Amino acid sequence: MAYLNEIGIVGSGNVAFHLIKAIQDSSTLHLKGLYTRNKKVGNELQEQFSVTFYTDLNELACNSKLIIIAVADDAIETIAQQINATNQHLIVHTSGSVPISVLKKSALFYGSFYPLQTFTKEREADFNQIPILIHANDENKKEVLIQIANELSSIVREINDEERKKLHLAAVMVNNFTNHIYTLANSFTDKSIVDFELLKPLIQETALKIKTVRPDECQTGPAKRNDQGTIQEHLAMLTNEELKELYLWFTDSIRKYYE
Amino acid sequence: MAYLNEIGIVGSGNVAFHLIKAIQDSSTLHLKGLYTRNKKVGNELQEQFSVTFYTDLNELACNSKLIIIAVADDAIETIAQQINATNQHLIVHTSGSVPISVLKKSALFYGSFYPLQTFTKEREADFNQIPILIHANDENKKEVLIQIANELSSIVREINDEERKKLHLAAVMVNNFTNHIYTLANSFTDKSIVDFELLKPLIQETALKIKTVRPDECQTGPAKRNDQGTIQEHLAMLTNEELKELYLWFTDSIRKYYE
């Protein structure tokens, strides 16, 4: 049971924050401590979650058996190589797009522990509903990670580097691109002096709908109907070239998809 | 109080369905009946909601004072002109993009009653949270419509043709375009043999987040960070030209927005 009881977290960003919180809320998992270069945030997390903040990475490593590296993608390899790991250590990262092999030089056992969600400190994360995607270079250690993930979430899957990378790409589409559509629509409503608030129930319902209906089965609107009257009126209202491009691209893509 | 008690609905699509349901659920509004050319659906609605189904449009008109036309945009004017309206009648449509003037030849009093939401028969609509946008050619009648809308929803606004059209365009972006991103991501995950289900919690959270945070304040991802390593890896995974275009367009637009 050592891995479950001796978890160390490296990092202090949004993923680290919510992982610390979820582990501290769990009755079966135990956090040994946290390491981050950001002393101010380290001290804040120590206070907020009663977790030991180590200012020395290898002090954290000495006290932990599972080390979860929750830092920016391009910092994972470097920080992992600073850990003096023993053959007992299991080191994982939380990235969607980095292969686990970047941890090869740092430990005998390594893997990934990827929570597929967008985290912000201001919003509660219901970890139980967040898919945790597991991969490891060793079967036994993979089972350990799955066991730990099961303590945090009801959606746990084993997924290799390639599949995780593909899911991460799809996540960029449904999260980053969708959010950018909200941003562009918000710019348009602000400029048109109509209230973006009025669109929020629609935005919620658009996302909720696909819980039970395939997205291509609930598509509606002028592009799907190829309603040229409305399409031309909309284009005439769009004075911003970028929005016009967006409108034309989606109208064309939707029309082609359904014809 | 006659308008509140003598409502007739024309149409049998998703908007008509949910309006009938909401009015029948209300204790203060009363539905006199329904007209639709689709006899099968008319009979079904009569049975399901205990509403009188008229097969003759002018029989419905004789028994109603407020006639709500909830049909496809391009059918509104034609059907309205088939109504032998008196000077007591108030005729409104439920369209986001059609000006109220298409009803000018059909009645002395006319307007719009636009519920800004995407409706499907399979999903419950919480009308209380759906913005209803009101416009009319007469001040007193506008007040009547606002009073009726207030019985159905807690979000009621007066909005003219131009503003309604702009909101409808923004609605097309956040609903149709967003839903098409879900569709394209779903095609990609299906083709990659990874499970689209795993993205659903992320899709929900992306929409929920903007209830409290401005969308441009919660943007994350490789495009915003201008993380060229991840961007190039993603592009290499996209063999479909359309998805590649989508990815490049959003990556460029996000980068420009935040630089």
3D architecture notes:
2 copies of one chain form a homodimer. The first copy, chain A, has 259 residues and is α/β, with parallel strands linked by helices. In chain A, 49% of the residues lie in helices and 13% in strands. Chain A is built from 11 helices and 8 strands. Chain A has an 8-stranded mixed beta sheet with strand order 3-2-1-4-5-6-7-8. In chain A, α6 links the parallel β7 and β8 (156-158). At the A-B interface, α7, α8, α9, α10 and α11 of A face α7, α8, α9, α10 and α11 of B.
Number of E-state strands of chain A = 8
Give the rounded overall mean pLDDT of chain A.
96
> By helix and strand content of chain A, what is the structural category?
alpha/beta
Quaternary state reads homodimer
Task: Report, as a whole number of angstroms, the end-to-end distance of chain A.
Answer: 57 Å
Sequence stretches where pLDDT stays below 50 over 5 or more residues of chain A:
none
Topology:
The structure is a homodimer of 259-residue chains.
Chain A: H1 2-5, E1 7-10, H2 14-25, E2 31-35, H3 39-49, E3 53-54, H4 57-63, E4 66-69, H5 76-81, E5 90-93, E6 109-115, E7 132-136, H6 139-152, E8 156-158, H7 161-192, H8 200-209, H9 222-225, H10 228-237, H11 241-258
